[in-house]
Input
Amino acid sequence: MPDRNPLPAPPLLKPSLPPRPAVEMQRRGELRVEKFLDAATEVFNEKGYQSARLSDIVKRAGGSLATLYRAFGDKEGLVHALMEKSIHDFGQSLEELLRSPLPPQQALEQAACRMVEEILTPARIACHRIVISEGLNQPALRDWFHAHGVEPMEALLSRYFTRQTRAGTLYIDDCDRAANDFYMLIIGGLILRSINGRIDASNIPQAQRDACAAVQLFLNGALPRS
Output
């Protein structure tokens, strides 16, 4: 059934927050940029944000420091680029949820499985480690990630729950709250375990089974039915 009252797409950026530094991203340099991002993911995961040096990243990726500075500006710009890529990939899974013709349980299980895959990528783990370890020292970076990577995802979930409630396939009285609860139920614990090294991409199959069980708990609750 088509949505007769389409909701406006949630904003991707908060006007009150500055965008990440402008960088030079030319098509002929896309391969080099990807190599820098891959190398940065490895170095950040191995050494942490503070101990990671741009020279270490260049050594693994090839190229030069001058090329890295032209592409990203500095180490913070490199982290922003890494976050942007991860946010884009994660957002695609929820965009697919909005387009899904499946009943809510199947659609949400599929979305949860895609979320698990993205959360356990090395790049996303690196982003979460940086945000959590550097949150107090670099609140602007922490708040940027939350504004661009968490709030828009919850807005997409809220939009889905609102649409399904209007269609009569779900009954949720506070879709914004439900979106936050769903987000944390599915990936909150996953984030904590991945940043401390207890799980990684090798654990995706079990993590997806756990996510599907969490979807059922979210939809059915725990109280006995009369």
Notes: The domain at 79-220 is CATH 1.10.357.10 (Tetracycline Repressor; domain 2). The first helix runs from residue 30 to 51.
